[in-house]
Amino acid sequence: MTALSDQEYMRYSAHLLLGDIGEQGQLALRNANVLIVGVGGLGAPVALYLAAAGVGHLVLADDDHVELSNLQRQIIFTQQQLKQTKVSAAKASLAQLNPHVNVTAIAQRLTLDSANNQLADMLAGIDLVIDCSDNMPTRQAINKICVTQKLPLIVGAGIRMEGQLISFNAQQADSACYHCLYPFDDTAEVNNCSTSGVLGPLVGIVGSLQALEAIKYLTGMPLSSLNRLMRFDGKTLQWQHLSVAKDPDCSVCAGR
Prior knowledge:
By secondary structure, the chain is an alpha/beta fold. It has one domain: NAD(P)-binding Rossmann-like Domain (Rossmann fold, 3-Layer(aba) Sandwich). The chain is 36% helix and 18% strand. It contains ten helices and eight strands. It has helices spanning 6-11, 13-16, 22-30, 43-53, 86-97, 115-122, 136-149, 178-181, 193-196, 200-218, and strands at residues 33-37, 57-61, 102-106, 128-131, 152-159, 162-169, 228-233, 238-243. Strands 3-2-1-4-5-6-7-8 form an eight-stranded mixed β-sheet, with helices on both faces. Strand 1, helix 4 (43-53) and strand 2 form a beta-alpha-beta unit. The longest helix has 19 residues, at 200-218. The protein is globular, with a radius of gyration of 18 Å.
């Protein structure tokens, strides 16, 4: 493992002072490969913080384009990037923030039908998956492949003034999965930021916590949100914590 350069020592000096990270933790971040699915209100702070932290390789997956209404909360984009694909615009922004981070941009939407092909290719060499998507089919597709590939998954959600955070780790036999928490129902009403609205800083809070959990995991610290649904009320600034047990009849992870 190549030692940190003088420039890296200066750039990440605040990390190096932390006993929980230090030089070995920073090297682990530099060697990490992370898939971020969705570069919107959640994915924007996740990508920015992980790039700033020195995560060596970020894979961004999103099929959308930057629109004017995105700029209220998707802080990785600028007015000059309107109509560009989100992944290419985000890649350019991250290169300005930290040119030492390698970013792969994939302008595709992930669905259950395409999960085995698209996601399997993306997950080659991936250490951690972060779900920043805004629709149930994509979430279920990501969860299914993470269970199959035995990859840890950090899931965030934000709508109106309510946020959620939870993580799963299929490497652990007793870990639940996203399907245990939300059994898939393709007739469920579609609610997202575009249809129900969201306060910008709300998704910033959840996305920042996803990034925090990711850095902790990659540097060897335990995930505080593992099998633990954390619900945030932006109106009262109160949290509710709920333990999530593995469903023995789950159609996704029960046979693991």
